[in-house]
Specification:
Blueprint: H1 2-17, E1 40-43, E2 47-50, E3 55-56, E4 65-66, E5 71-72, E6 82-83, E7 88-89, E8 99-100, E9 105-106, E10 116-117, E11 122-123, E12 131-134, E13 139-140, E14 150-151, E15 192-194
Antiparallel strand pairs: 1-2, 3-4, 5-6, 7-8, 9-10, 11-12, 12-15, 13-14
Signal peptide: 1-20
Keywords: Signal
Protein name: Tyrosine-protein kinase ephrin type A/B receptor-like domain-containing protein
């Protein structure tokens, strides 16, 4: 009996010296994150994960938010999207990189989801531009999305500059241009059309 009393006393002393174990948060599991830092999101209610490229995360969300059209985000862990610059576009949500407007088109504004096609009388030989070039005297651009103007020759060797009327047989008062191409830096051979 003496042994049982001593054992009971020892057990009682051990119990009074043990600290309480941590309890789960109300309504949650052990280790569950209540919020994540900005630039991350809560994955499966258990871990904070860096926001993937093409998305933004404010830290309090369980899902990344894709960048809208006209916006993009190339980096992970971001809290905001970047605007496309003039000459570029994004036409899908969650874009990682902007796309350059192809030759024959342009975009004069930022944060856009499309490019405008070059109308009659104008052209754009390079991609990623925010402006158009007017056709030169003796050259024509009669379609839309014009990349290269047409050299007027034969029975219709004339054309007014910046005209979508095409090549004509009647002489014009302008001086015919020998060439009508953009410079390597994109400079127009004649008039530059913005907006």
């Amino acid at each position: 009996m003496l042994f049982a009393t001593a054992l009971f006393s020892a057990a009682l002393m051990m119990l009074t010296s043990v600290t309480a174990l941590p309890q789960p948060e109300a309504g949650g599991l052990m280790g569950r994150q209540s919020s994540c830092p900005s630039g991350s999101y809560q994955y499966n209610q258990t871990a904070c994960v860096a926001c993937p490229a093409g998305n933004t995360c404010n830290g309090g969300s369980s899902t990344p938010q894709p960048c809208d059209t006209g916006l993009y985000q190339p980096n992970t862990g971001s809290t905001s999207c970047m605007q496309t610059q003039p000459g570029f576009f994004t036409n899908q949500r969650g874009s990682i990189t902007p796309f350059a407007c192809p030759a024959g088109s342009y975009q004069p504004y930022s944060q856009q989801a499309f490019c405008y096609g070059a109308p009659k009388g104008r052209f754009q030989q390079q991609s990623g531009k925010s402006f158009l070039c007017a056709t030169c005297c003796g050259w024509a651009a009669m379609d839309t999305n014009n990349v290269n103007p047409v050299n007027c020759t034969g029975s219709t060797p004339y054309a007014w500059p910046n005209s979508g009327d095409g090549c004509i047989s009647s002489p014009t008062s302008c001086t015919r241009a020998a060439t009508c191409s953009q410079a390597a830096d994109g400079t127009c051979p004649g008039e530059t059309i913005r907006g």
